Amino acid sequence: MRKARQRDRERCYLCGGPGRIVDHVIPVAEGGSWDLTNLMCICDPCHHTKSRTEAARGRARHL
Ligand SMILES: [Zn+2]
Question: What residue spans of 1-63 are helical by DSSP H?
Fold first, then answer.
């Protein structure tokens, strides 16, 4: 996880702001790996947006 932050220089992958959270590009639930290539550094607001989008996708799959 720290490697991903160092690689991205603690910058948000999506908006370029200060990123504190390391998240998966492809969620593990959707088949994403824990490999560094599937990890990105993102900030709080982008993480919220991303989580909402993924939760909505997850709900859509259940319908
Ligand atoms: Zn961001």
Answer: 2-7, 44-62
Ligand 1 centroid to Cα of residue 31, in Å, is 23
Q: What total of structural domains would you count in the chain?
A: 1
Residue 60 has pLDDT above 90, yes or no: no
- How many whole angstroms from 33 Cα to the centroid of ligand 1? 21
Does this model's pTM top 0.90? My answer is no
Q: Which domain range does residue 56 map to? A: 2-62
Q: Give me ligand 1 centre to Cα 26, in Å.
A: 16
